[in-house]
């Protein structure tokens, strides 16, 4: 949670700086996450997908914090995986705890 | 005719068993392919039957040469013991591969499993129930086989028979309990990599317990037939080494697969 807060803070800061600088377009990909230091980012993708659903359950999909998780997993995960997992979440067969 | 040997080695007579045994193994291989592809079991059973018969007659020859003809000198016995130890070492490596598979899958569980071990939805067996009892059963059998060994060395025939009978009984009890445990298990070998690694590792261990029990039963029969002396009992020693090996594999299975893995 603390790690995530640090990322989130950096993300907001970047956003604000860009907006103050007059730029409208913010280009950003998933930041480095010390929990997933290896080349294989499968579990980083997975964790953000799970965190997004946990977050949505608590705060609603439109909450800024949840949007952050969604941006990260959309950036990291292959689309096929996300489609598959969304089907599983709908069917109640997703293996992660949400 | 008397021959004088100028060396301590046993030069065996030409024997048909290696060739016929290989033929039986070939039938098992071809028969297994026929079974896997067409459900035809006859050839496989024929292969098993041939191999079992060859095992019987081959070891019958070995017993004749050692116990009744006295060909097994100190050097020959030493060679057999080294051979048995190397065989057991190869068995250790065999089980090493199943532990490797288990740890590969369980130390960093894949996303398909929910990144947890045991995988999401798999209810493992309670390690403090029957598996703990089985640990006690196998450890006790290790003690009784040592009792039998010391009885043989001390020339106490009745005690040796009692100790070995108890060992065989505990071995059979273990197999029975494992059978019940398998029957009652809430997961199967096709339930994720958990089921695959669990039944592959514990199943092969169970198979080795059956082999070890057979080995001990043969030793018990030979003990009753007065074929072991306090100085000449390599067959028994090999059986007890094998049994201890099976025992140690179980300890690791219990600690890793049953306890930590649940």
TrEMBL record, chain A:
Superkingdom of the source? Eukaryota
Q: Which UniProt keywords apply?
A: Disulfide bond, Mitochondrion
Q: Which Pfam families match?
A: COX6B (PF02297)
Q: Which InterPro entries match?
A: COX6B-like, CX6/COA6-like_sf, Cyt_c_oxidase_su6B
List the subcellular locations: Mitochondrion
Q: What is this protein called?
A: Cytochrome c oxidase subunit 6B1
Q: Which organism is it from?
A: Acropora cervicornis (Staghorn coral)
In terms of one coarse class, where is the protein primarily found? mitochondrion
From TrEMBL, chain B:
Highest taxon in the source lineage = Eukaryota
Output this protein's name. Answer: Cytochrome c oxidase subunit 3
Q: Which InterPro entries match?
A: Cyt_c/ubiquinol_Oxase_su3 (IPR024791), Cyt_c_oxase_su3_dom (IPR033945), Cyt_c_oxidase-like_su3 (IPR000298), Cyt_c_oxidase_su3-like_sf (IPR035973), Cyt_c_oxidase_su3_a-hlx (IPR013833)
- What PROSITE patterns does its record include? COX3 (PS50253)
One of its Pfam families is COX3
Which Gene3D superfamilies has this protein been placed in?
1.10.287.70, Cytochrome c oxidase, subunit III, four-helix bundle
> What membrane topology term does the record carry?
Multi-pass membrane protein
Family (UniProt): Belongs to the cytochrome c oxidase subunit 3 family.
One GO term under biological process is: mitochondrial electron transport, cytochrome c to oxygen
Keyword entries, A-Z = Membrane, Mitochondrion, Translocase, Transmembrane, Transmembrane helix
What the protein does comes down to:
Component of the cytochrome c oxidase, the last enzyme in the mitochondrial electron transport chain which drives oxidative phosphorylation. The respiratory chain contains 3 multisubunit complexes succinate dehydrogenase (complex II, CII), ubiquinol-cytochrome c oxidoreductase (cytochrome b-c1 complex, complex III, CIII) and cytochrome c oxidase (complex IV, CIV), that cooperate to transfer electrons derived from NADH and succinate to molecular oxygen, creating an electrochemical gradient over the inner membrane that drives transmembrane transport and the ATP synthase.
Question: Is the keyword Translocase assigned to this protein?
Answer: yes
Q: Which residues cross the membrane?
A: 35-59, 80-103, 128-148, 160-178, 198-221, 241-261
CC annotations in GO: membrane; mitochondrion
Species the sequence originates in: Acropora cervicornis (Staghorn coral)
| PANTHER family reported in the protein's UniProt record | CYTOCHROME C OXIDASE SUBUNIT 3, CYTOCHROME C OXIDASE SUBUNIT III
Where is this protein localized, as stated in its record?
Membrane
Q: Say yes or no: keyword Translocase present.
A: yes
What GO molecular-function term can you cite, just one? Answer: cytochrome-c oxidase activity
């Amino acid at each position: 949670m603390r790690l995530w807060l640090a990322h989130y803070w950096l993300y907001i800061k970047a956003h604000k700086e860009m907006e103050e600088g007059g730029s409208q377009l913010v280009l950003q990909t998933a930041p480095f996450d010390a929990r997933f230091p290896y080349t294989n980012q499968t579990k980083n993708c997975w964790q953000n997908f799970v965190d997004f659903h946990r977050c949505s359950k608590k705060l609603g999909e439109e909450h800024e914090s949840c949007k952050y998780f969604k941006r990260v997993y959309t950036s990291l995960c292959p689309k096929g995986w996300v489609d598959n997992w969304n089907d599983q979440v709908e069917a109640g067969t997703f293996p992660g705890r949400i | 005719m008397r021959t004088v040997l100028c060396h301590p080695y046993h030069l065996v007579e030409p024997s048909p068993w290696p060739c016929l045994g290989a033929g039986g193994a070939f039938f098992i291989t071809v028969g297994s392919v026929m079974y896997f592809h067409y459900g035809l079991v006859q050839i496989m059973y024929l292969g098993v039957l041939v191999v079992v018969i060859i095992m019987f007659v081959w070891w019958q020859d070995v017993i004749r040469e050692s116990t009744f003809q006295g060909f097994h000198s100190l050097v020959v016995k030493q060679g057999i013991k080294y051979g048995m130890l190397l065989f057991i070492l190869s068995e250790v490596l065999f089980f090493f591969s199943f532990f490797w598979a288990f740890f590969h899958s369980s130390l960093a569980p894949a996303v398909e499993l929910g990144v947890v071990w045991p995988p999401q939805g798999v209810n493992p067996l309670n390690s403090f129930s029957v598996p703990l009892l089985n640990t006690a059963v196998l450890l006790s059998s290790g003690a009784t086989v040592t009792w039998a060994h010391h009885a043989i060395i001390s020339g106490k025939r009745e005690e040796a028979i009692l100790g070995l009978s108890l060992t065989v009984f505990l071995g059979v009890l273990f197999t029975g309990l494992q059978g019940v445990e398998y029957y009652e298990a809430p997961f199967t070998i096709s339930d994720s990599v958990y089921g695959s690694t669990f039944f592959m590792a514990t199943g092969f261990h169970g198979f080795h317990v059956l082999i070890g029990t057979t080995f001990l039963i043969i030793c018990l029969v030979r003990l009753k037939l007065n074929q072991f002396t306090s100085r000449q009992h390599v067959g028994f020693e090999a059986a007890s080494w094998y049994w201890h090996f099976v025992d140690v594999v179980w300890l690791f299975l219990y600690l890793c697969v049953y306890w930590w893995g649940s």
